[in-house]
Amino acid sequence: MNTLTFLRYICAGLAIATSAVLAQSGQIVERYSKLPASADGIGKGYMGREIAAVMGWQGAAWLEREERDREKRTDLLLAALMLQPGNVVADIGAGTGYLSRRMAPIVMPGGKIWAVDVQPEMITLLQAGAKQSGLTQIEAKLSAVDDIKLPASSVDLAIMVDVYHELAYPYEVMTSLLKALKPGGRVVFVEYKAEDPKVPIKQLHKMSEAQIKREAAVFALDWERTVRSLPWQHVVVFRKRN
């Protein structure tokens, strides 16, 4: 190979590498879009919807309201999860730990609840609630906005209750969640039914079953079932491919 041919070879290689980098960057940029922010959103679009604003820790009392069990039928949700003793569960966006505290006794003996939240104030409230309840199998974990920060292949079931639609980086969070999930593990989306106008929640804080399935289809997940028996929410269950 003469010098000129060698230089052409190098330049061609650099051009291909540069194009690949630019294409990859383009994918990242195009994953999200900028939108005029609505009253309840953050002005960021993902797969045809605007991402909703997060409920801050200042609203923690609403998560623990006395009528929550009756309104949302937490008993039906727990039954739908089909938890077993020994299960390791990740409660993503756990807030005050309302659901974590109710799942914890079901996974004993031998189980564990990773109660994950992005707000340090919620983690403090969560830890206090777990301590008061004597539930040592609950472990609070502060996450990042784009990473749940759990060990790889450690989780049997990950659940997000009224959380996924508020994730500022849903693709990145789901990527980290899939890494933490064991092969055959389950991901559960619990969202207010966008299909039902009678559900008394702002529209941006609802998700349709079709939209949930559309966003989950990006990942190595297979839809398993949808539970529609809850008054306001649907429970959409996926299983990680082996």
Provide structural commentary.
It is a single chain. With 242 residues, this protein is α/β, with parallel strands linked by helices. It folds into 2 domains: 3-31; 55-240, 3-Layer(aba) Sandwich (Rossmann fold). 35% of the residues lie in helices and 27% in strands. The protein is built from 8 helices and 11 strands. The protein has helices spanning 3-31, 60-63, 68-72, 74-81, 98-103, 120-133, 170-180, 209-216, and strands spanning 33-34, 41-46, 49-52, 88-92, 112-117, 138-142, 155-161, 181-193, 206-207, 221-227, 233-240. Strands 4, 5, 6, 7, 8, 9, 10 and 11 form an 8-stranded mixed β-sheet that branches. A hairpin with a 6-residue loop joins strand 1 (33-34) and strand 2. The radius of gyration is 21 Å and the shape is globular. Mean pLDDT is 88; it is low at 1-29.
Secondary structure layout plus pairing:
Layout: H1 3-31, E1 33-34, E2 41-46, E3 49-52, H2 60-63, H3 68-72, H4 74-81, E4 88-92, H5 98-103, E5 112-117, H6 120-133, E6 138-142, E7 155-161, H7 170-180, E8 181-193, E9 206-207, H8 209-216, E10 221-227, E11 233-240
